[in-house]
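Problem statement: downstream parser choked on a complex file, so we are re-checking the raw output for the guanosine-5'-diphosphate run. The parser issue turned out to be on our end (a line-ending mismatch), but while we're here, posting the original submission so the record is complete.
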Amino acid sequence: MSLFPAVEFLKSVAAPGQFPQDDGREVAVAGRSNAGKSSAINALLARKGLARISRTPGRTQLYNYFQLAPGLRLVDLPGYGHAKVNAAVRESWGPLGEALRQRDSFAALLLVVDIRRGVGELDLAMLDWAGRPAHVLLAKADKLPQAQAMRALKEAQAVLAAHGSCQLFSAHKGTGLEDARRALRGLLKEITPAE
Ligand code: GDP
């Protein structure tokens, strides 16, 4: 059963004037390029290929909006880690980022981190920039043996401290999928997470 059966691509935003109406609630999904963000979104929403629908090569600065249900949105932010985008992160993502940050509906951040890299400086900058409640998916957890994955989780929890919660996640193996869905729903405040 899909978490949001009526999920649909809403629009790509390339300029501050193009954002959807600022009502309801939205969760932004961010991460370094190649962290596993698209795979995570597709797994969370149980819609293969959804996060790639709007991907236009060379137009990586688009903010891609999905409507999860009426009044509930997910916005897929450009992956960072390339020199150009790094500068943009340091400059608080420029006018587009600033416009997002000022939205009342921007409720929380879902951050995707490659478990083998761990939570890095840019990830922490992203969390600071957003200034919203956050949940971190330590993605591609299947790439590490269990003991190493658990160590990575402990390290991430220590680094994140008050920044937010985190968990092991694998889009390929389904590890942590239900926890991640619960966290997403919690971030959207649709329901209160069980924890
Ligand atoms: P994005 O750039 O952050 O959107 O990352 P993608 O979702 O496109 O994934 C980047 C690469 O990591 C691709 O080759 C994926 O197949 C791989 N990948 C993503 N999630 C997983 C996972 O859970 N396990 C493994 N082993 N590989 C993954």
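For whoever reads this later: The longest strand covers residues 106-114.
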